[in-house]
Amino acid sequence: MSKKAFITLKLFATLGKFTPASADNYRVEPGTSVRDLIAGLKIPEEKAKLIFIDGIKGELDSTLNGGERIGIFPPVGGG
Amino acid sequence: MKPDVDIKIRIRELSNRKKLPDKTPYTGISVNNIINISGDSGISCRDIEIASLEEEIIPERYIRNMKSFSANDQATLLKSMITIVGLGGLGGVVTEILARTGIGILNLVDGDVFEESNLNRQFLCTENLISTQKAEAAEKRIKEINSSVTVRKYSEYLNEENAAGIIGGSDAVIDCLDSLTARFVLERASKKAGRRLVSAAVAGSYGHITTIFPEDPGLKLIYGDPENAPNKGAETSLGALSYCVSLVASLEASEAIKIILKNGSLLRNKLLVIDLADNSFETMHLS
Questions:
Q1: Residue B14: helix, strand or coil by DSSP?
Q2: Sign of the torsion formed by the C-alpha atoms of B112, B151, B142 and B167
Q3: How far is A1 from chain B (nearest CA, A)?
Q4: Domain locations along chain B
Q5: 10 Å Cβ neighbour count for B187?
Q6: Residues spanned by the domain of A15
Q7: Chain A residue set in contact with B, beta carbons under 8 Å
């Protein structure tokens, strides 16, 4: 059985509707990619335009080991 | 025409010794006296105010700035030019703030007219200005606020052809646009002209802001490559709330003023992300 890993997840703007109930303590498999995380949450990949891991820009291929704070943003252009 | 010694004597004659609420003494000059000296001499209100500040005589309209700005800072702002591209939600508030702060020259760019759906958040939009050019309304508002501000009005949309001519010479450019495509046009022009750009965007109660110097990667760190970026974002479904728009616009004005005064810290290669739904404010690192 794989080790438990938990992240804090915040989905911004239009992605808010994909927020799981356990977003403050969301379980992931250690080594999972942001792409897999997004797929698991049923977020269309093209909507996940901007990803931050612990306040630093990440990528879809970035891997998670537990303990991270993840922020995911759609494109926003209103003025 | 520039103020000469006689004008400086006139400024001094019409000034008054006063005290701030904390009892700090200062010498001030009223708005009416500035306007009268300008009318008598044919010298612009802006140049009269600059001459006054050089004599450490503070125009009363700026007196509440003076614990944050020096007289020299205020004169620097009056000698500066800022281009505001987009005069909707963000741009209307930015225009108001920069006119009150005393930026000397404001280039205002927007080809659009007001419509009823603007009334919830666009401070320049009033019921009787529906169908009026936004740039025209902005110019009128500035003139009502501060006769020392020179307005260069462009009732046209920014594009690859007109951008260089409009933003050239600006000490800061502020992106208050509402489409990603236009934002990239502005960024390209700003980089090419060596101008510093403040860029912000909003959707619902969410907003973000960054500052881009010509050598910085800029918007592609936020939106990806321009050729793959959509024209519109989450605002299409979320709209924009007045209190979020005005907050983010205030941050844009603050960044532009710090660029000009070369003080404080800027959001270069950073994105300040705001979500008023849960009062979250976080500065993210883009690179």
A1: coil
A2: positive
A3: 35
A4: 5-75, 80-285
A5: 22
A6: 5-73
A7: 10, 12-14, 16, 49-50, 52, 55-57, 71, 73-79
ipTM of the complex: 0.94
Is residue A52 assigned to a domain?
Answer: yes
**3-state SS assignment for residue B239:** coil
**What's the rounded Cα separation, in Å, for the pair B222 and B243?**
23
The structural domain count of chain A equals 1
Class of B80-285 per CATH? alpha beta
Q: Is A63 among the domain residues?
A: yes
Helices (H), chain B: 5-13, 31-41, 45-54, 71-78, 89-101, 134-145, 163-167, 180-192, 220-223, 235-238, 242-261
Among the residues of A1-79, which ranges form H helices? 34-40
Q: Which CATH number characterizes residue A50's domain? A: 3.10.20.30
Cα distance from A2 to chain B (closest Cα, Å)? 31
Q: Do B237 and A78 touch (CB under 8 A)?
A: no
Could A78 and B240 be called an inter-chain contact, meaning their C-beta atoms sit closer than 8 Å?
yes
Give the 3-state secondary structure of residue B143: helix
For B264, the token pair is: 């404080």
Written as tens digits, the pLDDT of chain B (287 aa) is 667 889 999 999 999 999 999 999 999 999 999 999 999 999 999 999 999 999 999 999 999 999 999 999 999 999 999 999 999 999 999 999 999 999 999 999 999 999 999 999 999 999 999 999 999 999 999 999 999 999 999 999 999 999 999 999 999 999 999 999 999 999 999 999 999 999 999 999 999 999 999 999 999 999 999 998 889 999 998 999 999 999 999 999 999 999 999 999 999 999 999 999 999 999 999 98
